[in-house]
């Protein structure tokens, strides 16, 4: 017999009747598997003596258990725990709380995190970091594509687990897309599909960085890349970014004087400043990469969104000895609620990265990836990008005009060649967090901007995401911003 | 002027005409951004002298570039690189290869990997590790749900980036589902949605394990968990698993004598052996966890698939001081081509894990998660599980009968209480890799089995995944297996 005297704890001061306490605790023991189906409970007389209770109380508890189907009365043998237990109901614990109300009792790792981004006040209007307009995303076409895949006979034969490198049809479609848009001439072995640009960055960095390695990033730099490198144990050296992009002379100087393991670069519409690397610096950088066999992560998150000027092809499309790991994403075309990114690299790098990805994530959603392949093949993505580029170009220009009209002395900026945000510098006498708090009171949510200067020189600037706001919203947002600035 | 003499390299022995070589190299320089739109090319006479060519050759090259719209003849000024460059075309490199044909030239990390799994011979029939039947997956319902979400007015307002913890509606729906199926009484702060059980395992382990920490796993153990812990730098101690699950006496002994940081356990249908932890050992384990404040990852990947016996609720549903991090998945209900998993833990653990997940993956697919929430709410998942359980139960029994009938002396096994695989031990005189090679010749793909003994005692066994095979397929598979064994 189980040690029922220890297991069943009666609290006579409780407002719950004793027989219900007993019944509840038996249910817990059965649910926990301590009392198994087919087991006989002690006779009511025995248990009553053991617990120092009146026998009637125990009988009432057993009646309750029987009524709930937990136990069955077997003639001449006693009360048996039912073979077919009733549906499982959540239990409460002695402390009246749930299983995860406390703990854990062991220490937990702390990943690096960002400072607080913005006020929590709920707002109708938001200035974001540079997101697309989800209203434009071709999600109807995506749902149709999924449907048509599911209805193909025997689709399940090829559509269960995909390889860690991603859906093969998508990888093949990527070749044409990358050649047409970026002049990138590769094979499918050079493509890995990931859950988004961030996973591509993390995986690539994990393949390159060993704890204590020196790496170079821009100052300022994309904050989630910074955090990932820090988490991987990199020693980060920050090289200034000016209007022509990262200072390549300083990069060269550093490569000459110390062992630099990696460079992270955003060559088009740098995050956060939106500048694009000049052709001269691009040439210089390719020379440095080849000479020093420097590992490079080129994050080209916004390449597909270009307006006034035709984009220069990425570093990845030039002659770099296979040293540039190229990172991009379809997430912004898919309206953010579906996240797919990619990594382009030498075959050996892709193969070894797949081994790491398998441990973190096995592989992607084969159905979602297959649907994207279909949308690349039938031209949906190209059509979407054309439409979005036209609209975002107009919105960029309108945002620029509105900012000049309403905040002529309060902010300064340069219109970016592409992307989804304007890098807005506030005049010295205006403190961005103060402006943001005032804006929040007026119903406009905007950033405090701390994270744009994550561990780099503080600046009084923020990204003004214009792409997600239609003309009417842009007018309202800039008017509210002007009001916040001037109040 | 650019150093054209250096930049343009003419190979007179090439089969390509010299003027085409020059044109092609100019296109490369323009694509690379070294020559920018609006720039004037050198006069044909100047370039001819510089390159030591006949002037007519240069003129032919410029004509070609003009025909392709790369340059424009400006009267009295010369050849200007076009402002509107023609569509970008992929370029080839001097070596005739593509940008990623070689390299990288820097060292790359090696993640731990499995030994080769099976023969590469293409086969019509496959014995898998224990996958569901994708033909049953409610993907039509899923596509319908996606469609209805997309058609809701203003869905984009709440459906862009989700939080790193996962879609809030899904987290709320999970509470009811976990309570109904597992008796787990928690709050939404205790739930994190991930990209699958593997990501949950990796993240949880990364929060607990520091390089060199001693952890306990079963022997044998689920191979991808093993690899993940190894990759994170754990020192792995293997404790035997017998027919009652992991040897808890040895676990206790180890906890008493050295600092054990973590235990990884699969309490239902252990992978690979399919045994379920006995009630006594479960009780013992809970005692050890509370006493030693031991961190536990409970991987309950197959809980939803139970046949002959009602499942005992997981460790997570008992009183464990918040020390059991509970991992599960919907991937098997969704037919593998959509991968969603979850982690249940104390709020503090979830919050800190979200910070790490953000660096690796920002967050999940909000649309896919929202659709799953809808399928939990409208009962699709419950209906699917009922239907699948009935069918898999029949298939388990049929597989068992067939194996006994056709391979009475060659294999031994115990039918598992649930899950999707039978753990098949081959008689000593039969070497599994030999059998697998023979089977491959007969058109049946099956594992070599090496990975089931990844760094643990070798055994001549494999998982026989029965759930994905219908009755006809089961008969064929067992007949082929018998033929392979006896040939």
From TrEMBL, chains A, B:
Q: Which GO terms describe its molecular function?
A: DNA binding; DNA-binding transcription factor activity; pyridoxal phosphate binding; transaminase activity
In what residue span(s) does the HTH gntR-type domain sit? 16-84
> Which residues are listed as membrane-spanning?
none
What keywords are assigned to this protein? Answer: Aminotransferase, DNA-binding, Pyridoxal phosphate, Transcription, Transcription regulation, Transferase
- Which N-terminal residues, if any, form the signal peptide? none
Superkingdom per UniProt: Bacteria
Give the family, as the similarity comment puts it: In the C-terminal section; belongs to the class-I pyridoxal-phosphate-dependent aminotransferase family.
Which protein, by its recorded name, is this? GntR family transcriptional regulator/MocR family aminotransferase
Please give the organism.
Chitinophaga dinghuensis
């Amino acid at each position: 017999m189980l040690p029922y005297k220890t297991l069943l704890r009666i609290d006579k001061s409780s407002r719950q009747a004793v027989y219900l306490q007993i019944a509840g605790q038996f249910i817990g023991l059965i649910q926990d598997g301590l009392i198994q189906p087919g087991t006989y409970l002690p006779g009511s007389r025995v248990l009553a003596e053991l617990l120092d209770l009146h026998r009637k109380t125990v009988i009432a508890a057993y009646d309750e258990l029987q009524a709930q189907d937990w136990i069955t009365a077997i003639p001449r043998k006693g009360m048996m725990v039912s073979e077919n237990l009733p549906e499982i109901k959540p239990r409460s614990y002695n402390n009246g709380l749930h299983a995860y109300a406390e703990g854990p009792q062991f220490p937990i790792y702390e990943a690096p995190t960002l400072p607080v981004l913005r006020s929590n006040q709920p707002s109708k209007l938001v200035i974001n970091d540079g997101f697309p307009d989800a209203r434009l995303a071709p999600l109807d076409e995506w749902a149709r594509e999924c449907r048509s895949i599911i209805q193909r006979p025997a689709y399940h034969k090829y559509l269960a687990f995909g390889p860690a490198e991603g859906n093969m049809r998508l990888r093949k479609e990527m070749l044409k897309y990358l050649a047409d848009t970026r002049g990138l001439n590769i094979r499918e072995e050079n493509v890995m599909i990931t859950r988004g640009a961030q996973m591509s960055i993390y995986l690539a960095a994990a393949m390159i960085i060993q704890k204590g390695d020196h790496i170079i990033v821009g100052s300022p730099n994309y904050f989630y890349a910074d955090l990932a490198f820090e988490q991987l144990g990199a020693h980060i050296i920050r090289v200034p970014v000016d209007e022509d992009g990262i200072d390549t002379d300083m990069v060269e100087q550093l490569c000459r004087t110390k062992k630099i393991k990696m460079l992270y670069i955003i060559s088009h519409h740098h995050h956060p400043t939106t500048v694009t690397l000049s052709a001269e610096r691009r040439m210089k950088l390719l020379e440095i990469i080849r000479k020093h066999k420097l590992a490079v992560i080129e994050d080209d998150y916004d390449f597909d969104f270009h307006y006034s000027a035709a984009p220069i092809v990425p570093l990845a499309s030039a002659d770099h000895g296979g040293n540039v790991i190229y990172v991009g994403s379809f997430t912004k075309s898919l309206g953010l609620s579906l996240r797919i990114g990619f990594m382009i690299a030498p075959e050996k790098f892709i193969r070894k990265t797949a081994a790491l990805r398998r441990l973190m994530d096995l592989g992607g959603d084969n159905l979602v990836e297959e649907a994207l392949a279909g949308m690349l093949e039938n031209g949906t993505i190209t059509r979407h990008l054309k439409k979005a580029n036209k609209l975002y170009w107009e919105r960029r220009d309108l945002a620029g005009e509105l900012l000049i009209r309403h905040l002529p002395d309060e902010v300064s900026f340069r219109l970016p060649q592409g992307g989804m945000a304007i890098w807005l510098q506030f005049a010295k006498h205006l403190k961005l967090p103060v402006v943001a708090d005032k804006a929040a009171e007026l119903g406009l949510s905007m950033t405090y901007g701390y994270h744009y200067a994550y561990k780099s020189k503080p600046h009084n600037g923020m990204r003004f995401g214009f792409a997600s706001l239609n003309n009417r919203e842009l007018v309202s947002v800039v008017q509210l911003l002007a009001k916040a600035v001037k109040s």
